[in-house]
Write a structure and sequence with these properties.
The chain has about 190 residues and is mainly alpha-helical. It has 2 domains: about 90 residues, RNA polymerase sigma factor, region 2, helix turn helix motif (Rna Polymerase Sigma Factor, Chain: A); about 110 residues, Arc Repressor Mutant, subunit A, CATH 1.10.10. Helix content is about 70%, strand content about 0%. It is built from 11 helices and no strands. The longest helix has 20 residues.
Length: about 190
């Protein structure tokens, strides 16, 4: 096992400042997650480009990385989210197309209590339409939490906003999603303080 295998992301980035080839360890650790997130947001066609560009930008900005953060995941998701925001119109078109075609990929909300209680096949069209209708900042925090599996705090870090702002956006997004899915009973999905 190499030293980089056991090192934290911050340690890997610190080493990559002196030895650029060390950055490959960060790529190996996080590429699949960043790619999967981009693919869910924009489709497989753009995911390779977004994931690759995320790591190019991260490599270029490695000198500015906050070494007190052991996990670079939120930082990388933040870079990816900014790149994805550039493709917001393409994302909205993708979600509308998924709603029309009934493609199953949109509904895989790992860990989200709403999707766990509902029949995914019955709600996927409304879900895709509702996601497309969310304002971009609210959609971003919701998808970072639901699809990328980040905590609300890590989503705030990724979006470079205060934690309270991320919590407010997440609450508004969940409220809008519940409304779009016809879930008016607040007991169906109690808010979780993160």
């Amino acid at each position: 096992m190499s030293v980089l295998t056991e090192a934290s992301d911050a340690e890997v980035i610190g080493r990559a400042r002196r030895q650029p080839e060390a950055f490959a360890a960060l790529f190996d650790r996080h590429y699949r997650k960043i790619y999967a997130y981009a693919a869910r947001r924009l489709g497989a066609g753009l995911a390779d480009d977004i994931a690759a560009e995320t790591f190019l930008i991260a490599f270029d900005r490695r000198d500015g990385y906050d070494g007190t953060r052991a996990d670079a995941g939120p930082w990388l998701y933040g870079i990816a989210a900014n790149l994805i925001a550039r493709h917001a119109r393409a994302e909205a078109r993708h979600l509308r197309a998924l709603a029309r075609t009934g493609a199953i990929g949109v509904v895989e909300w790992d860990g989200d209590a709403v999707a766990g209680r509902l029949d995914a096949a019955a709600v996927r069209d409304r879900l895709a339409e509702a996601l497309a209708a969310l304002p971009a900042p609210e959609r971003e925090v919701l998808l970072l939490v639901a699809w990328a599996g980040l905590s609300c705090q890590d989503a705030a870090t990724a979006m470079d906003v205060p934690a309270g702002t991320a919590r407010s956006r997440l609450h508004r997004a969940r409220t809008q999603m519940r409304s779009a899915l016809g879930m008016t009973n607040p007991n169906l999905d109690p808010e979780v303080n993160e």
